[in-house]
């Protein structure tokens, strides 16, 4: 089956659908021991419809992959983010989420290409990301995209810290 995937900037009207997409992918990836209170709190706040609308309105830094006008993947660029390893400020790929049903269809590659085009157009030549140390599928994907590990850092939630690889890519 051929999927026609389109890439575009997120719009405020996408917030509800993106909220569900973020929650679903996040929980599938990280809730390997079930849905803890801290995960539930984090996801409810971070991925609320209002929080996503605010991000779209303020920064317009989300790129959405759509199939039949429905979001199936999303990437978010966080400008002026401090890399925890290099301790310098430059863009972060804050999120790159794709629904499971759409894995292997080039959506991740398309989102990375769209992100890099936007970054180049704004004069940036590198960016970085965090990836959960146990998320081998994502680590492998990023390595294929020419990201390199520059160190490890911890992401803190309410009661726990989660080790992540920090990866960087120079855009050529």
From TrEMBL:
Q: Read off the Gene3D superfamilies from this record.
A: 3.40.630.30
- Please give the InterPro entries that the UniProt record associates with this protein: Acyl_CoA_acyltransferase, GNAT_dom
Which Pfam families does the entry mention?
A: Acetyltransf_10
The N-acetyltransferase domain is annotated at 5-172
Name of the protein:
N-acetyltransferase domain-containing protein
């Amino acid at each position: 089956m051929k999927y026609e995937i389109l890439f575009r900037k997120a719009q405020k009207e996408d917030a509800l659908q993106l909220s569900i997409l973020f929650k679903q992918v996040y929980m599938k990836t990280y809730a390997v021991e079930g849905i803890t209170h801290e995960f539930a709190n984090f996801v409810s706040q971070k991925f609320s419809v209002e929080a996503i609308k605010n991000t779209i309105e303020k920064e317009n830094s989300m790129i959405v992959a759509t199939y039949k006008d429905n979001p199936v993947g999303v990437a978010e660029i966080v400008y002026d983010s401090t890399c925890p390893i290099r301790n310098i400020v430059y863009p972060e790929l804050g999120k790159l989420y794709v629904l499971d049903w759409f894995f292997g269809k080039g959506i991740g590659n398309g989102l990375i290409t769209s992100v890099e085009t936007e970054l180049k157009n704004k004069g940036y030549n590198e960016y970085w990301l965090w990836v959960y140390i146990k998320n081998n599928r994502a680590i492998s994907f990023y390595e294929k995209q020419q990201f390199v590990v520059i160190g490890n850092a911890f992401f803190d939630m309410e009661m726990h810290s989660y080790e992540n690889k920090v990866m960087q890519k120079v855009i050529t």
